Every structure is written in C-alpha cells, then in structure tokens.
Amino acid sequence: IQETEEKKIALELLETEQAYVNRLHLLDQVFYTELMKEAKTGKTFPEEVVKMIFSNISSIYQFHSEFFLPELRKRMEDWNCNPRIGDVIQKLAPFLKMYGEYLKNFDKAVELVTAWSEKSPPFQELIADIQKRKVCANLTLQHHMLEPVQRIPRYELLLKDYVRKLPPESPDRGDAEKALEMIFMVAKHSNAAIAEMERLQNLWGVYQRLGLEDDIVDPSNQLIKEGPIQKVSTRNNSTSEKYLFLFNNMLLYCVPKVIQVGAEFQVHLRMDVDGMKVRELKDTQFPHTFLVSGKQRTLQLQAR
C-alpha cells in the first residue's frame, strides 16, 4: 500500500532521530568519555577543558536516547491504529531549552578544541585516533559537535512539512499545530539566548576599553553607536579628537589615551540621555557641527 505523505515525514523524523542519537552517543560516550578518562589518569590536559568543550551534551544525549527516540519509535509502530506524533513532540519541546546552554557555549568549545590540539599532543592524538574509527565516517570532532546546533531547525522544518501534509480531519491536527508553535518558540528562544550572549560579550569589550569604571559597568545597558568625533573649541578656533559611546541611557564623552595601558579611553563626561537635546549648527568655519546639550553641560561637536 502507498504510504501517506504525513507518515513518510513521520518516518523521516524517526530515521533522522535514530541517526542523531548515534551522533550524540559518539559525542558523549566516545569523545567526551575517552577524553575525560585521559584527563583524569594521564593528567596531560585539564578535566575542566574537556567539560567546557562538551557542555551539557550528556543531558541532551540521555534525553534523546532514553525518552524521545523510544517514544517516537513506539508511535511509528502503532501508526496504523493511532496515526499521531504531535503529542510526543509537545513533550519534547520544553526540554529543547536545554540546548540554550550548548548553543551559547558552542563557539568557545570549537576554539578550545583548536587551541588544545595545538597545545597538547596527547589531546590531539586521542582525537585523531577516535576520528579514524569507522563510526566517525571520516568527519572531524568539530563537525559532529555541530549536529545539536542544527537539530532544532531540522525539527521545525520536518514538523512544518508534516502539518502542511496532514488532512484537515486528521486526529493529530490540533496537537501537531500546537507542537509546531512550541518548537518555533524554542527556536526563537535559543536564537535570543545567542543574541543576548553576543550583546553581553560586546558590552564587556566596551567596558574593558573604558577601563572598567564601576559606575558605568551595567549588564542592562545597550550600546547603540560609538565612534570618533571632533570637539570644537570656539575660544581658540580649533578642534581636538574625542570619542563617543552612545548607550540607551547615557552618552560617554571620552578622550583617547595616548599610552594605552589597560584602557583605550578615559571618560571625561557622562551625559544622561534623559533630557538631552541635539541641534544642528550652520557654521561655515566648521561644517557638520552640532550641539549636544544635556543636564550636565553642552558640547559643540564636529562629525566627519
């Protein structure tokens, strides 16, 4: 008999899940376990590094191998009398938030693999040895590490397709639509987690360039724009090089340091964005100038 479109997609979900669990097994039970064993006994590289590379892969592996895959398999075996997977995917969705941790850590993890392969011959040899095995299919550790990153978008695509192919009267319709909505939210959640992490990293970078002035370091700030600017001094008709950082709540007016030890800039003035006004000036001598006036003081600045 001809299999229905939706059953084909459900079977594809099961097959890819089986392959995915094999890949997670390789990451957790082979790479992680063997590197950890060497770190403990050989003391040739730190256990901490191994933990940082694999993040929470063990939880992800256990969840998929002990819960999601068996549930999916059971569903597909009873498909003819109970054609549905929506309810199982609804149970899966909340657990996918575990991926946030893994995704946030991913870039750092790949960097660590590269760095320690250069630093520690035993580390590199052990990875090379595992990569030669048949189970690795000629692919690198980094390649396998990418799998969990790509899995959630894959669920989303398969499920979208599944919902599209379901006949309107299918008993799985309501559940499948709800499941898709949940997966969509998780995908958004993990993207948001990555974006938030990048924002904080950039912010920290800015704070370091400013010399970590206590009253400026605040994780809720958002950097909007930064760049060099000329300060116009009408007293002696000259301009001097300054640098601005505009945050959502304040403008930092800085002087570039000549000797850059620690910080690149010294903060000369903080102006609250609240109550700040900007006015363009028509000055023939200094084109592209504008006035920024705030509670603290007024500055005449010239852009490029």
What's the structural blueprint in terms of helices and strands?
Blueprint: H1 5-42, H2 47-54, H3 57-77, H4 86-92, H5 99-119, H6 121-132, H7 141-145, H8 147-165, H9 173-209, E1 223-233, E2 238-247, E3 250-256, E4 265-272, E5 277-280, E6 289-293, E7 298-302
Antiparallel strand pairs: 1-2, 1-7, 2-3, 3-4, 5-6, 6-7
Helix pairs in contact: 1-2, 1-3, 1-6, 1-8, 2-5, 4-9, 5-6, 5-9, 8-9
Domain PH: 222-304
InterPro entries: DBL_dom_sf, DH_dom, FYVE_RhoGEF_PH, PH-like_dom_sf, PH_domain, SOS1_NGEF_PH
Domain DH: 5-193
**SSE-based structural type:** alpha+beta
| CATH 2nd-level architecture of the largest domain | Up-down Bundle
* Percent helix: 55-70%
Describe the largest sheet.
Answer: 7 strands, antiparallel
CATH class of the largest domain: Mainly Alpha
> Considering the protein shown, what is the CATH homologous superfamily of the largest domain?
Dbl homology (DH) domain
Number of strands: 7
The N- to C-terminal Cα distance equals: 73 Å
The CATH topology label of the largest domain is Dbl Homology Domain, Chain A
SSE topology string:
HHHHHHHHHEEEEEEE
Supply the number of helical segments. Answer: 9
Tell me, what's the shape? flat
Give Rg in angstroms. 28 Å
Widest sheet: strand order?
Answer: 4-3-2-1-7-6-5
Strand residue content: 15-25%
Poorly predicted regions are none
Average of the residue pLDDT scores: 88
- What count of structural domains? 2
Structure summary:
The chain has 304 residues and is α+β, with helices and mostly antiparallel strands. The protein has nine helices and seven strands, in the order H-H-H-H-H-H-H-H-H-E-E-E-E-E-E-E. A hairpin with an 8-residue loop joins strand 5 and strand 6.
